Amino acid sequence: MTPALPPLIVINSASSAGGTTVARLLQKDLPDVRLLLGVDAFIDALPDWTARGDVGLHFGADGEVTVDATYREREDAWYRALAALAASGQALILDEVLLDGGKGQERLRALFAETDTFWVGVRCDAEVAEAREAKRPDRIIGMARDQAERVHEGVVYDVVVDGALPPQESVDTVLDALGVF
């Protein structure tokens, strides 16, 4: 018998570290139906940030990603909407890149205070992530290296997996930690 699963699973990883792949496979392998949302869905919902400078999301030539108060206000509204989904009984997987590490985790913990949450860290050697990044036309070179450690600083996880391993191995580790196996 499968134990009751936490309604919210947060996967935090750097760009090109394998977090989205783990999230998609986990969504497929979990015994319940979960919506997969997160930072990419939020950014996709914003107006074209390459044409507009007022969304609060900034990309440096070296791959550094920064956000301003305008972005944080919209992000906060996004997370409140997701918290309402979770409170209504919809199980979620959030695929995140917590640019400010532990501070980002604390923001999410406060917004999802009423929701049992399971935290997954997908760590990946910067060189491996950089090689993946170089093959992807939608990435700014340098993002993987910039984010490799900073997204994890101060974050406390229930389980950490290696994004350089075959993704199904990471998913199996998460499922085991959740008690699904």
Automatic annotation (TrEMBL):
Listed SUPFAM superfamilies: P-loop containing nucleoside triphosphate hydrolases
Protein origin, superkingdom: Bacteria
InterPro entries attached to this UniProt entry: CPT (IPR012853), P-loop_NTPase (IPR027417)
Molecular-function GO terms, alphabetical: ATP binding; transferase activity
Catalytic residues in the record: 40
Name this protein carries in UniProt: Chloramphenicol 3-O phosphotransferase
Organism, scientific name: Microbacterium keratanolyticum
